[in-house]
């Protein structure tokens, strides 16, 4: 009976909370508790309905919290002058957090490039979220160096298509990307400003609650994972809203 009583009290609290009513001291009233217990035993579906409503409330709260975080970091997300941006005059901004050793990022990359080329109105912002160790950081730094020679997108494509990303592969990939001065690119990727950029982007992802890569943001919509169809839908939604 003790277990049943605890269940009854918990169910009562859940039901009242889900319905937006204060629990107060109702659960301490034995007679009231017995009535609730009898009702729940006769109508167990009420508990399921209450749990469903509570989950909906929690999801809505989580979404509002996420939107608030995105809004508070909007400038850092979309208008950091240090970012590499494709289609800079586009009216719709997409931000990608990625890691060069992330398998799902590699799967998404060709579709990302297609999307960029097919949608000149989409302003695409690249942000490194280095989570897979030193090799990922080395690649990110090399890409920064390539970007300072106007070859960022080429490096992004080549790095993402490389199955075994490592320090040895980077010079070859930089050359394939059209980087003319390897020493200059390596120095640019190793300087203090590159270090700070990687640190800031990592912290930004953490502040936004992003836990994995790739992650795309279209306005206030977060698209986790390599879900290109969801990304396209978010872009279309942004277009409709702008129109």
Explain the overall architecture.
- It is a single chain.
- The protein is an alpha+beta fold.
- The chain has two domains: 2-71; 74-242, Glutaredoxin.
- 62% of the residues lie in helices and 10% in strands.
- It has eleven helices and five strands, in the order ααααββαβαααααββα.
- The chain has helices at residues 2-18, 30-42, 45-72, 74-78, 103-118, 134-147, 152-161, 169-176, 182-190, 192-207, 228-242; strands at residues 84-86, 92-98, 122-128, 215-218, 221-224.
- Strands 1-3-2-4-5 form a five-stranded mixed beta sheet, with helices on both faces.
- Strand 4 (215-218) and strand 5 (221-224) form a beta hairpin.
- 33% of the residues are buried.
Strand order of the largest sheet: 1-3-2-4-5
CATH architecture of the largest domain: 3-Layer(aba) Sandwich
Please state roughly what percent of the residues sit in beta strands, choosing from under 5%, 5-15%, 15-25%, 25-35%, 35-45% or over 45%: 5-15%
CATH top level of the largest domain?
Alpha Beta
Mean pLDDT level = 87
State the gist of this model:
The chain has 243 residues and is an alpha+beta fold. It contains 11 helices and 5 strands. It has a 5-stranded mixed β-sheet with strand order 1-3-2-4-5, with helices on both faces.
Any chance you could write out the topology, listing elements then pairs?
Blueprint: H1 2-18, H2 30-42, H3 45-72, H4 74-78, E1 84-86, E2 92-98, H5 103-118, E3 122-128, H6 134-147, H7 152-161, H8 169-176, H9 182-190, H10 192-207, E4 215-218, E5 221-224, H11 228-242
Parallel strand pairs: 2-3
Antiparallel strand pairs: 1-3, 2-4, 4-5
Helix pairs in contact: 1-2, 1-3, 5-7, 6-7, 6-9, 7-8
């Amino acid at each position: 009976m003790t277990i049943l009583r605890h269940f009854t009290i918990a169910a009562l609290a859940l039901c009242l909370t889900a319905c937006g009513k204060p629990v107060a001291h109702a659960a301490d009233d034995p007679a009231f508790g017995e009535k609730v217990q009898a009702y729940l035993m006769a109508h167990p579906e009420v508990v399921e309905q209450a749990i469903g409503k509570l989950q909906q409330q929690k999801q809505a709260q989580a979404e509002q919290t996420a939107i608030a975080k995105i809004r508070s970091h909007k400038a850092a997300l979309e208008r950091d002058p240090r970012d590499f941006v494709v289609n800079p005059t586009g009216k719709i901004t997409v931000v990608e957090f990625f890691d060069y050793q992330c398998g799902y990022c590699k799967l998404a990359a060709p579709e990302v490039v297609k999307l960029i080329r097919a949608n000149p109105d989409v302003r695409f912002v690249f942000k490194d979220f280095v989570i897979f160790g030193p090799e990922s950081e080395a690649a990110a730094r090399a890409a920064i160096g390539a970007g300072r020679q106007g070859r960022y997108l080429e490096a992004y494509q080549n790095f993402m298509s490389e199955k075994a990303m490592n320090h040895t592969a980077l010079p070859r990939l930089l050359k394939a990307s059209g980087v003319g001065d390897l020493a200059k690119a390596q120095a640019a990727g190793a300087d203090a400003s590159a270090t700070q950029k990687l640190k800031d982007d990592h912290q930004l992802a953490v502040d936004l609650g992003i836990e994995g890569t790739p992650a795309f943001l279209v306005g206030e919509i977060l698209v986790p994972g390599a879900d290109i169809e969801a990304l396209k839908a978010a872009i279309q939604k942004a277009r409709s809203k702008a129109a």
